[in-house]
Design brief:
The structure holds two protein chains of two kinds. Chain A is an alpha/beta fold. Chain A is built from eleven helices and nine strands. In chain A, strand 1 and strand 2 form a beta hairpin. By secondary structure, chain B is of the alpha/beta class. In chain B, helix 9 links the parallel strand 5 and strand 6. Classes of the chains: A alpha/beta, B alpha/beta.
């Protein structure tokens, strides 16, 4: 607190940090309707606001946790860990950014892969961890994704990806860009082999992730109100110098423009996707 | 400031101006100043060698965007014969920022795809500064699939700041158009050679850059995001673009060291625009040599090799044994 703030009577002080200081862990504000929500209640509804139905972000682990059947799931390719080959340094070292992200998220990188079943349908599923450097795709994300796709190909089982990413990871420079080509090439093999790949867009998906693996699903599916596009709204606004239309790049916009097949509520994802996969793989209905 | 020279080339511009002045004096004077002129020319050459043997990454970035740098259609003119430009994505429009067509490389029919920037203001706008919209990428895809059907190798020329970030481009699925090309190019059963001739701007470049062999001109760049964009995000200031260019290693030389680029084409002192014919001739030789090498592979081998090449592009550490 500066000396000026100290002499201002406390009632006049606008301490922004304090005002929003809802006790960590117990309460959380819905970013859309601003209702203060009781966290255990929110978690029970998988981070969907009980008031306005807004789908808040989920960690990769919780995402796969709620999506896959409880029994018989295994995490895969977690041994693939990041390496700072370029010795990249901006205002911070990439190495330090990695370490901080690993500490904060307790994940090694921004993609988690699991094998399991969804209401009895065998799948390989992966999910982006947005809290890990904005879910950015570098070599580890690319490599884990490729390995997952290759496993689905070898085993002949469907592949699902929940994306949530700001795009390619700048700190790995051109190596990151190449992950777009790698993941797309691996998906093309699945396509040629007739193995289903479903891409689920969750808030947000941009840049290099959007312009590769996220758009290549046999079905592209979005959660409600998720933002997804190639260029971010700020970049577009600066380029075209006009205000963006209401709802631009939201799931509903994507559905209108033919980018996604459907929007599915988080609570119905398991059921809807397993039903779709059963049809695509000629399995009997549940 | 002489607009034909970049800021770091201004000392050269000044010397050249002085030489021109002396020449004028020499014309209407009986004094013999040819000795002085040749001394200055020697000095100018030396200065140029000094400047260009020690280019910073940021200076290479400037050169890659030089307004006089040869563009795709310039190379088409110098390298190929019998070019028929083909237009349109058959769905929405023709995108002038991305050109394509069939031509002959010596006798061999080939498919050419490339970003195209404009030279005059009007032309720049018409070409959208070389930033394609989805219909551009879809045209490229149509032509590349056509090339496969007619057994033509595909030669792509990369020179774009990036795919266009506009409302209309988003509405028509910019992401999907790029992603689709990446997937299709990975399986096309015909040789693909890509050459970065100027700016290789991110996904907008890669969307015609999945290939069997990647060539870069010495003063071209290829990066995941523009140095300015990277600087404004990571350094919170676009003024740090120099640092960003350095850190990302965007230049052809650095990318070659990293094993991400197969061949480099030398440029004349001062950049490709100082002698486009020479650069085109060297590039042509390289294209012919590469095509010759790739023609020894069966279709299956070619696609398998392309996949393996792609899979080798990661910043892993094989010593950790986790790849």
């Amino acid at each position: 607190m500066s000396w000026l703030e100290k002499i201002v009577p406390s009632i006049v002080r606008s301490d922004r940090n304090r005002r929003n200081n809802i006790p960590e862990g117990l309460w959380r504000k819905c970013p859309k309707c601003e209702t203060v929500l009781y966290r255990p209640e929110l978690e029970k509804s998988h981070n969907v606001c009980p008031k306005c139905d807004h789908h808040m972000r989920l960690t990769a682990r919780k995402r796969l946790g709620m999506f896959l059947d409880e029994d018989g799931r295994t995490e895969l390719f977690s041994e693939i860990e990041p390496v700072d080959r370029l010795k990249f340094k901006d205002s911070k070292k990439y190495k330090d950014r990695l370490a901080a992200a690993q500490r904060d998220t307790e994940e090694k990188d921004a993609l988690i892969v699991m094998r399991g079943t969804v209401q009895g349908v065998e799948v390989v599923a992966c999910s982006f961890e947005f809290n890990f450097m904005g879910g950015s795709m570098g070599s580890v994300v690319g490599q884990r994704f490729v390995k997952a796709a290759e496993l689905a190909l070898a085993e002949g089982i469907p592949f699902i990806c929940f994306s949530a990413s700001g795009g390619a990871r700048m700190q790995e420079a051109l190596f990151s860009l190449m992950q777009m080509a790698r993941t797309s090439a691996a998906l093309e093999k699945l396509k040629q082999a007739g193995i289903p790949y479903i891409s689920v867009l969750t808030d947000p998906v941009y840049g290099g992730v959007s312009a590769s693996l996220a758009m290549l699903g046999d079905l592209n599916v979005a959660e409600p109100f998720a933002l997804c596009g190639f260029a971010g709204p700020r970049v577009i606004e600066q380029t075209v110098r006009e205000k963006l239309p209401e709802g631009f790049q939201r799931s509903e916009f994507l559905l209108d423009h033919g980018t996604v097949d459907m929007i599915i509520h988080r609570h119905e994802l398991r059921e809807r996707l397993s039903s779709i996969l059963r049809k695509l793989t000629a399995m009997p209905a549940n | 400031m002489n607009p034909n020279y970049l800021d770091f080339e201004q000392p050269i511009a000044e010397l050249e101006a002085k030489i021109d002045e002396l020449r004028l004096v020499g014309n209407d004077n009986e004094l013999n100043i040819s000795e002085e002129i040749s001394r200055l020319q020697g000095k100018s050459l030396k200065l140029m060698e000094d400047i260009f043997s020690n280019l910073t990454p940021a200076q290479v970035v400037q050169l890659s965007r030089h307004p006089q740098r040869p563009y795709t259609l310039d190379y088409v003119e110098h390298i190929f014969t019998d070019f028929d430009e083909l237009h349109g994505d058959r769905n929405f429009a023709d995108d002038a920022a991305l050109v394509g067509g069939i031509a002959r490389l010596d006798d061999k029919p080939v498919m050419i795809i490339g970003h195209q920037k404009g030279r005059s203001v009007k032309e720049k706008v018409r070409r959208n500064f070389g930033m394609p919209r989805p219909e551009g990428y879809r045209k490229a895809c149509r032509l590349m699939e056509m090339a496969e059907r007619f057994k033509m190798p595909i030669l792509t020329f990369i020179d774009t700041p990036g795919a266009y970030p506009g409302i209309d481009a988003e509405e028509r699925g910019q992401s999907e158009a790029i992603a689709y090309n990446l997937a299709v190019m990975s399986r096309l059963q015909t040789p693909i050679i890509s050459t970065v001739i100027g700016e290789g701007g991110s996904g907008g470049a890669l969307a015609i850059g999945v290939c069997d062999e990647l060539i870069m001109l010495k003063n071209s760049i290829y990066s995941v995001i523009s140095p300015e964009g990277c600087a404004s995000i990571l350094w919170k200031s676009a003024d740090r673009a120099n640092d960003a260019a350095e850190a990302m290693g965007v230049t052809a030389g650095r990318l070659h060291e990293l094993g991400l680029v197969d061949r480099l084409i030398e440029e004349p002192l001062g950049g490709a625009h100082r002698n486009a014919e020479k650069v085109a001739a060297d590039l042509k030789l390289q294209l012919l040599e590469t095509l010759d090498r790739l023609s020894g592979l069966s279709k299956e081998q070619l696609v398998e090799r392309r996949y393996e090449r792609l899979m080798s592009y990661y910043a892993g550490n094989p010593e950790l044994g986790n790849w």
